[in-house]
Hints:
The structure holds two protein chains of two kinds.
Chain A: H1 2-11, H2 15-36, H3 55-89, H4 92-106, H5 110-121, H6 126-133, H7 148-172, H8 176-184, H9 189-218, H10 221-226, H11 234-242, H12 251-284
Chain B: H1 2-23, H2 44-55, E1 57-61, H3 70-81, E2 84-88, H4 94-103, E3 113-115, H5 117-122, E4 127-128, E5 150-151, E6 153-154, E7 157-162, E8 184-186, H6 194-206, H7 215-226, E9 230-234, H8 237-241, E10 247-251, H9 255-264, E11 269-272, E12 278-279, E13 285-289, H10 295-306, H11 325-331, H12 335-341, E14 345-346, H13 349-355, E15 373-374, H14 378-395
Parallel strand pairs in B: 1-2, 8-9, 8-10, 12-15
Antiparallel strand pairs in B: 3-13, 4-13, 5-13, 6-14, 7-10, 7-11
Amino acid sequence: MVQGGRLGSQVFPLLPFFAFTGYFLIWPVLAVTLRSLRGNDGEWTLSNYTPLLHGSYLHAFITSIKLSLVTSIIGSLLGALFAYVVVRYAKGRFGAVLDSISAVFANSGGVPLAFMFIAAFGTEGLVTRVLKTLGWDIYAGHFTIFSFTGVVMVYSFFQIPLMFLVFKPAIAGLRKEWMEASTNLGATQVTYWRRVAIPMLMPSFIGAFFLLFAGGFSAYATARALTVGTVPLVPIIIGTLVDVNVVSDQQNLGDALAVGMIIVAGIAMVGYVWAQKRAAKWRQS
Amino acid sequence: MRKQFIIGVVAAALAAASLVATSSVSTAAGTDFSKCQNLKACGGMDALVKAAQKEGKLNVITLPRDWANYGEAMDLFSKAFGIKITDDNPDGSSAYEIQTVKTAPASKVPDAVDVGITYGLDNTNLFTPYKVANWADITSDYKDPAGRWYGDYAGVMALSYDTSIPKAPKAFSDLKDPAYKNMLAIGGDPSGAQEALMSVFAATVASGGTADSVQPGIDWFKSLKTSGNFVTALANGQNFLAGAYKVSFSWSFNGPGAVTTAAKAGKTVKYIIPTDAVIKGTPYVMAIPFNAPHPAAARLWTEFLYSQNNGKTSMTVGSTKGMTGSKIFSSIMGGQNIWILGGALPITFDAMVAKKTNVTAPEGYGIPKGVKVITPTVAQQDAAKTLLKAQWPAIAGN
Lengths: 285, 398
């Protein structure tokens, strides 16, 4: 009785959480996976997966992974640098203000973010015009906001502050004593960074990198609002397959692409969890 | 997902309402409006209007007010017959319409759908046969012999541009001029979006090709991308107002609406139908789902949309109290002419011209005389999509 009661009191408060994840995460994943294994007439098949291995669908996976890699590399490097500078030099209230601003930027996305960039960096954008009056026409060459480069720019807008938020605690966790101790033992600044700080920060950095990768990989609306199929990302292709006016009955191929995305995101998440564990181990000892 | 959840939650609350709706299917006269397949079988116009007014409501779906003049059609229908129209998700897609027919609770099912032709062909089992009074005037290529779906209107590829640009384009081929650097956009990914697909057909024909292969059109866009004239921005109202592009390939039937919207924001847009390629789209199709919750209103709406009358508009229609159904119906403008005023080509257009029942299209929206009008077939469109899927993503480079 006592045992059962305790179990109940542990599980009961979590029921809403289970219901939520069950309905919004586990059930959709199962449903998508099952549908991806069925043909248009409901028969079991693996044929939905064959198009993923070549041609335009494979190209979409490569583009998606490339975009996520580029933006998470830019985001993690600049975000980490930004976090270091802030921890080191911005104390007190100013630091708190930067945290809040970053939280807002890190969570911006979708069509409004894309539109913001169009309004700023579009052909007639505000920034474009200001730069033009200063003598630099950014549209003179091949640059356009409606391209892979443009999407990278827009993604960096949320990736950098996200990295800042996620990585800042790790930098703040570097204790002054360690630096003093290594200096006392005759280490130079460079040696301290190379032998102490960077190895300490590495697991957190890699973990944050995976998080950024997964976020960039799954973003959809921003890229869709900026391009017309010219940056073929997997989620955009799924959208075209599932919800358009022209092609019908290709929903199951969309499901197969979605499962492919779940697998890639899953790998990134495993990397994230692994890195987090390593980081926690450091902090404990 | 969330939408389904909400639908689930409200389903219970709506169950009662749907019972009421179903029970009103049969009238005292004994006509089953969910089964009658033409106006005569439904007991004539007076009886149909009476039954529709008794239902009092009409569910439509994904009809943007500025799309093919649907705002006027809905306003006029609502005012003249006193039937309240609910337009679910005005900016949704054909796929959404079909999904809703399949999954919505009984009272939320649309009474009529307006979908891309492939959606009509693939879902005949969802629709109930009904042949409008003007059935014979509908081009036979675009109607189901059984009457489960039928073409309604089509668009022509127009060139729309901001009149503030230094050089007004006259033809699609003009756009190669360096004067149009950073100006041209299209409405989406041509392997998916119909308007964008037809843009590629227009470019193909304008550069001397035929609808059999859109390769010349793809090459045309590629060269314009290289020269910087083609910006890969999405052509929609918002991006236009932000100045992301100045010229785009657009469906004629979005013209009048777009011109009004742009004017409100202080921009002047002009639509022209160039003569170097006249591409007429495959018509959209209309259908009544067999489980339409307001079967009489659904049939009346369909009759109204296929009517060739030239009568009162939503602005001029007065009180129709005490008038018989057939009197009201014949006093108002029919959908076919409402579409013409919206820059669209209604499906019975040829018959209307022969009978002289058509109103004059707004200036600039008429099809240029003496030019070959091309409508890419479904097979040609499929071939184009296959080609585009392979080549389009690469035309942008990085």
